Structures are given as C-alpha cells and as structure tokens.
Amino acid sequence: MGHGGGGRLTQMLIEQLIQPALTNPSLDRLHDGAQLxxxxxxxxxxxDSYVISPLFFPGGDIGSLAVHGTVNDLAMCGAQPxxxxxxxxxxxxxxxxxxxxxxxxxxxxxxxxGVPIVTGDTKVVDRGKGDGIxxxxxxxxxxxQGIQIDPQRAEPGDVVIIxxxxxxxxxxxxxxxxxxxxxxxxxxxxxxxxxxVADLLAVAGSxxxxxxxxxxxxxxxxxxxxxxxxxxxxxxxxxxxxxxxxVRGACEILGLDPLxxxxxxxxLVIVAADYATLALEAMRRHPLGVQAAMxxxxxxxxxxxxxxxxxxxxxxxxxxxxxEQLPRIC
Length: 330
What we know:
Residues 32-143 form the PurM-like N-terminal domain. The structure is a single chain. This protein is of the alpha+beta class. The chain folds into 2 domains: 31-142, CATH 3.30.1330.10; 151-317, Phosphoribosyl-aminoimidazole Synthetase, Chain A, domain 2 (Alpha-Beta Complex). It contains 9 helices and 14 strands. The chain has helices spanning 8-22, 25-28, 62-75, 96-113, 168-178, 194-204, 218-230, 245-254, 276-284, and strands spanning 34-38, 41-50, 56-57, 60-61, 80-91, 117-125, 133-142, 159-162, 208-212, 233-237, 268-271, 293-299, 306-309, 315-317. The protein has a 7-stranded mixed β-sheet with strand order 9-11-8-12-10-13-14. A 5-stranded mixed β-sheet has the order 1-2-7-5-6. Strands 3-4 form a two-stranded antiparallel ribbon. A hairpin with a 2-residue loop joins strand 3 (56-57) and strand 4. It is globular.
C-alpha cells in the first residue's frame, strides 16, 4: 500500500520499474500531464484513477473528485479543459442507487466545469474484488501560446505560493473513517482549479514556472519532486503555511503532519520573484484563492531537497515519506 501513497515508495516504483520500460520525452518530465504538439496546437493530456474510501465524504464524493482531479491535472499544465473520459470498474453487488448517485455527481461536476464527458467504459468485477466502484478519468486540454509550465523550470529566487489552507481533504476523509467529531465541520477542498489558473496566467504569464496540485503525499512530496526535477533547493517558512484551526487540531490528535496530507482543491505555484505579488493578488481575487499565501522560495542551496524554517527559527529537512500517512485517500 505504501507504493500507492505518493511518497518515496511511489517515486521508486515509477522511476525504477515503470519509467525505464516506457521512457519517452513526454513521460520523462514526470509532470501532472503530457504536453503534446497536435496540428500546431499545444495539448495537455492527463489520466488518473480514483479508489477512495469512503465513496461519499463531507464536501464531495468519488464522482466529483474524479472530474475535479483530472481538470486540475490539466490546469497544472497551464491548460483549459476540452473533454473528459470516464472508465468505471464496478463491483458486483453495488446498489444501483449508489451508482446513480456517482453518475449524477460526475454529470453535475462536469457541467459546472463546462467540459463534456465524451467517451467512457464500464466493467464489472466479482463481489469482494472492487470495493464498490473505482473510476478512471482522462482529460484533454488546450495550452495557451507562450505558456510553458514544467517542474524543471523552477529557478533560484522564485517564490513558492500555495492557493489556500493545507490538508483539508485528507483530514475530512480520515474524520469520516474514524468517526471523529469536531466542533467545526471538516470538509474536503475538492474543487476545479482551471479558472484560478487562468486568472493567474492572465497576469503572470510565462513568469509562472511550475504548477502542481499537492494530492497524494501532500505539499512535502510535491515540492520534493520539483526540487529533484530542477536540481534546486526549496526553503519553506512554517509560520507562513495556511492551516485551518480545525485541521490543525485534527492533525495534532491524529499525529499527522499536514505537509504530507492530501489536498484536492489547492495548487502550488512557483513564480519569478518580480511577479510574485501580482500572482498572489490575482489568486486572492478568485474564490478558490482567497487565502493564498507565499510560503517559501527556491534556492541554489541543498539542491534536490526541501527544508523548512520552524516557527522558532530552527531548520529541519522536509523529506518524502517512505510509506504513507493515509491510504486510499483519492
């Protein structure tokens, strides 16, 4: 299960087993999606699978999550979504009412984004072998001219911005699994980020070097992947990390580090320092970026790794987890 947690074991599985067998320039960038030249246009192409438990959770469900997740992968390439596919692997015995709720959620989420489901597939597996339903979504998007988003473009001096509070999705899922009750309702942050990214690119354009949605493995894993791809260091400031108080309390109770907890409606932005303030202001004007914050910077020191300055001024390494904090989170 640790190989699916988004941390070091996932990275090793991809880099040592999968990537060498399938290597090509598009895949080797290890971005959220491939960027392809098609008939003179630049197209983003991404796929993802969803195996979340439970299927329905505060703030969303597997259907809306699948749509939002793939739309966000396209957005992290700088693309606006054009079309999606949906593959359903359904376990024998799943109530038709449950399936209908999931299908309605997919329809509503895709409708809200304004992107059609243009093709798909269904399979049924034996009872006990599918955990209800698994979804796979694939998306196509169009990348505007002049936009080049790539994890290898992170440069010393760039500023790191997060679009809002960390860890809401993972903690919402865990609270349901463990039957935990808090004074403040915890909800997933699952949301489509393509309009937020469009607003960001409208003011910062090519100064936006990297975009990444910190899903499995959280902010820590996403930033480590970027640092390794660009051979740069990243310095985080703990006191600048936005965190809802309910989530902070839940993490303390559960013994979880919010840097490693999954998010489904947040994005990391690495932008040239000269455009950082413009980028932050544009994000804060968007409903999904009201609490955006500058949380660190890219540095030439400690290339390939992430460190964090604590609230009291000490420094600690922010490495990838070997396994996972939360299984089956997306």
